[in-house]
Write a structure and sequence with these properties.
Phosphatase 2c, domain 1, 28% strand, alpha+beta, five-stranded antiparallel sheet, 20 strands, six-stranded antiparallel sheet, 414 residues, Beta-Lactamase
């Protein structure tokens, strides 16, 4: 659109005295400059360009300014930056409708006031005097924003916590009560200490007429991710042992590995570029107790079984690979150990959380060797005394250091 031809010399009829830090611009309704005092920025030289197109802020006011009436109060917009035609600083804008006596056409008077020094001074005053009105207003707005943000964060945290607490109830419902194990094996215990509200470690029990299956399972991670994995593992173990009626530990682990690998699907599409292996899995210690034969068969995925007999400790190691996870051969074959049990033998299966707990004077890990020596020292005690001793020892060890991982230890005496 071309600039309209407009009469000149109208500003003088409207303004008696031109102050140095004020610029007056006379605009037609299309935003073309009719006259400009050019005290701050040269606008009188604009040709065929509307200020509505030049200044985004004005473009947003276009409709408002076009419908501005002569009787209306001036529109005022304080503290605006005006990075146009090299004008830098802080400005106040005001707009009003103006109609010369000798003309039927009305115009928009745009007043630009350079208040850069003034606002710089006010800013200094605000810093030096926190009780100034502008500072209080600003602080009040910020305080309200912070309060609102904190309330929103607290609300979301509470919702998340409530959800996780409900998930804890579901997870606890999946775990068999300790008394179920003690009904079959009177002198036994379960020490179960979740790092977070929900746990990536879980224990599993299946009681059959002649055998009892007991497992300790340590899923990838802890907290919510580990808890999701624990639900998958618990469901798969129940299907294998209670529905498919498989009781041989090595076969259970092989079936579990197959099921978990299929459930996780082994692949996840990533960034539309290709597929990436899922490395989530679980470590398992699984034993089958044959009550009539007084025999235990054991298989493990990265977990061991420890037997304390007459003060001596023996370790039966599982395979070096986990259930699921990243491994070249998905059709894994697990080894199996068979143990003849004598009177007063004490069996232990456990996750790595106890040995990995940081603490002590040097804030180091408890370590597997230290843990096994502890088992060796307490094996002669009753199951309850052993559980209490293990709990007390690890709590004293960690002191004020947060729990490192989920902790799970099961002790069994036939």
């Amino acid at each position: 659109m071309n600039k309209k031809e407009n009469p000149k010399g109208l500003l003088a009829a409207h303004i008696n005295h031109f102050k140095p830090r004020f610029q007056y611009v006379l605009l037609d309704d299309e935003g073309y400059v009719v006259e400009s005092s050019d005290a701050i920025v040269k606008l009188s030289e604009l040709e065929n360009e509307s200020v509505f197109d030049l200044v985004p802020f004005l473009e947003s006011l276009k409709d408002t300014l076009q419908f501005l009436e002569i009787s209306d109060e001036p529109l005022w917009f304080p503290r605006l930056e005006f990075p146009v035609l090299d004008a830098e600083g802080v400005f106040d804008f005001s707009f009003r409708r103006f109609k010369p006596n000798e003309s039927e056409q009305s115009y928009i008077v745009w007043c630009i006031e350079d208040n850069t020094k003034h606002y710089d001074y006010l800013f200094q005053v605000q810093q030096e005097r926190n009780d100034s009105m502008i500072s209080r207003e600003w602080l009040d707005i910020k305080n309200r924003q912070i309060i609102a943000l904190n309330e929103e964060i607290n609300r979301k945290n509470q919702e998340i916590t409530d959800s996780i607490l409900y998930a804890k109830r579901i997870q606890e419902a999946l775990l068999p009560p300790e008394k179920n194990l003690q009904t079959r094996l009177k002198d036994s215990f379960i020490l179960y200490k979740a790092k977070d509200i929900v746990s990536g470690d879980f224990y599993w029990l299946s009681v059959k007429p002649d055998v009892t299956l007991v497992a300790v399972v340590d899923c990838t991670g802890h907290g919510v991710p580990g808890a999701f994995m624990s639900v998958l593992g618990n469901t798969a173990l129940n299907q294998i042992a209670n529905v498919e009626n498989i009781t041989q530990p090595k076969l259970i682990l092989e079936a579990l590995n197959k099921d978990i690998s299929q459930l996780l699907n082994k692949y996840v599409y990533q960034h539309q570029e290709g597929y990436e292996k899922i490395e989530d899995g679980m470590d398992v210690a699984l034993c089958c107790i044959h009550h009539k034969e007084r025999k235990v068969t054991f298989a493990g995925a990265k977990r061991s079984l420890c037997l304390v007999r007459k003060g001596e400790i023996m370790e039966y190691k599982g395979n070096i690979f986990p259930i699921g996870g990243f491994f070249k051969n998905d059709e894994k074959e697990f080894n199996e150990h068979s143990l003849d049990i004598e009177n007063d033998d004490m069996l232990y299966i456990f996750s790595d959380g106890y040995a990995d707990q940081f603490g002590g004077a040097d804030e180091k890990k408890f370590m597997s060797l230290h843990f096994k020596k502890l088992l060796q020292r307490i094996a002669h005690l009753s199951a309850k005394e052993q559980k209490d001793a293990l709990d007390k020892t690890i709590e004293e060890w960690r002191g004020n250091i947060p729990q490192t991982d989920d902790i799970l230890v099961i002790g069994l005496r036939l």
